[in-house]
Amino acid sequence: PLQYAVDREEGRFSPTFGLSVKPGVDWLQLFATYGKGWRPPAVTESLITGRPHGGGAENMYPNPFLSPERSKAWEVGFNVLKENLWFSDDRLGLKVAYFDTRVDDFIFMGMGMQPPGYGMAGIGNSAYVNNLDSTRFRGVEYQLDYDAGLAYGQLSYTHMIGSNDFCSKTAWLGGVTQTVKGSGRRPPVIDMRPDEQANAATHCSAVLGSAEHMPMDRGSLTLGMRFFDRRLDVGARARYSEGYSVAGGATVSQAGVYPADWKEYTVYDLYGSYRVSDELTLRLAMENVTDRAYLVPLGDVLAFTLGRGRTLQGTLEYQF
């Protein structure tokens, strides 16, 4: 068995800058942000090893040379705020923003890996590796708010753009060898030498997990009302996603192991709060009123991890 002694220490400065401008009118604001990020691999990503479950020939291998993720993110957009539009003290807000995050050395669990030594790559061999391509997450966010005091509402929607390729070296640690045979009718193996072709080979889209798929488009609508001098606030929320599906055959994982099939869903929530006094507030909320079974955007289809079912929560807040 391979043994590793890992002792690494790294650090990185991750700045974020923002700028907002009102171009001569009070109701319009232009904004932009830019930042850098850095995420070192988790201990489990670097050193996980063994079988992920009982039985079978699947194996997880460590990767002590896993590189940290490095990201650059920027966002541009505008805010519109209009007051006293139709009624006294009402307010209308609009936000549109484009975001773009590019990640180098994105960490994902690759399948079909080839460990060091003599042997072959196998679909059951998995390890956390760095993406050889840049991974990009970009999209557009829309948000509309209206508040008239007695009644209010909010509409939001996020649209994702594009897709990603996930590629890695098949022999992620190198060290693959091949036999050197002697002469004769049945030549014996007399030595082992590095297999340069296997050590240099790369493959793409053999991903275990939902990382290879972009998050689904999603949106929400909230409507609420206030009573008793705004002490009582009640409302309803609808959460929607259009789903995401891949027919299969496009990649190794989709065709044989990991079909993407997130169904469209709409989930309804109810909430309410009552301010008993300046110090005491009571809150009650019911999530997923119809107890709908659904998979959240970027949910794990392989493990069939469903979103939360009907859930009732109550809180009491006292400030002093």
Can you describe this structure?
There is one protein chain. The chain is 5% helix and 48% strand. By secondary structure, it is mainly beta. The strands form five sheets. It has an eleven-stranded antiparallel β-sheet, with no helix packed on it. Residues 249-256 have low confidence and may be disordered. Its main location: membrane. Belongs to the TonB-dependent receptor family. It comes from Pseudomonas aeruginosa.
| Overall mean confidence score, pLDDT | 87
Adjacency order of strands in the biggest sheet: 1-2-4-5-9-10-15-16-19-20-21
Biggest sheet, in brief? Answer: 11 strands, antiparallel
H/E element sequence: EEHEEEEEEEEEEEHEEEEHEEEE
Number of DSSP helices? 3
Shape: elongated
Membrane topology: Multi-pass membrane protein
Subcellular location: Cell outer membrane
Domain TonB-dependent receptor-like beta-barrel: 7-289
Keywords: Cell outer membrane, Membrane, Receptor, TonB box, Transmembrane, Transmembrane beta strand, Transport
In summary, what is this structure?
The chain has helices at residues 43-47, 196-200, 252-257, and strands spanning 16-21, 28-39, 59-61, 69-83, 91-104, 107-110, 117-118, 125-130, 135-147, 151-161, 167-169, 176-181, 189-194, 202-204, 218-227, 232-241, 244-245, 261-262, 265-275, 280-287, 311-318. It is mainly beta and 320 residues long.
Characteristic key phrases:
receptor; mainly beta; 21 strands; tonb box; 320 residues
Layout of secondary structure:
Blueprint (H helix, E strand, L loop, with lengths): L15 E6 L6 E12 L3 H5 L11 E3 L7 E15 L7 E14 L2 E4 L6 E2 L6 E6 L4 E13 L3 E11 L5 E3 L6 E6 L7 E6 L1 H5 L1 E3 L13 E10 L4 E10 L2 E2 L6 H6 L3 E2 L2 E11 L4 E8 L23 E8 L2
Parallel strand pairs: 3-8, 7-12
Antiparallel strand pairs: 1-2, 2-4, 4-5, 5-9, 6-8, 9-10, 10-15, 11-14, 12-13, 15-16, 16-19, 17-18, 19-20, 20-21
Keywords: Cell outer membrane, Membrane, Receptor, TonB box, Transmembrane, Transmembrane beta strand, Transport
Pfam family, one: TonB_dep_Rec_b-barrel
Family: Belongs to the TonB-dependent receptor family.
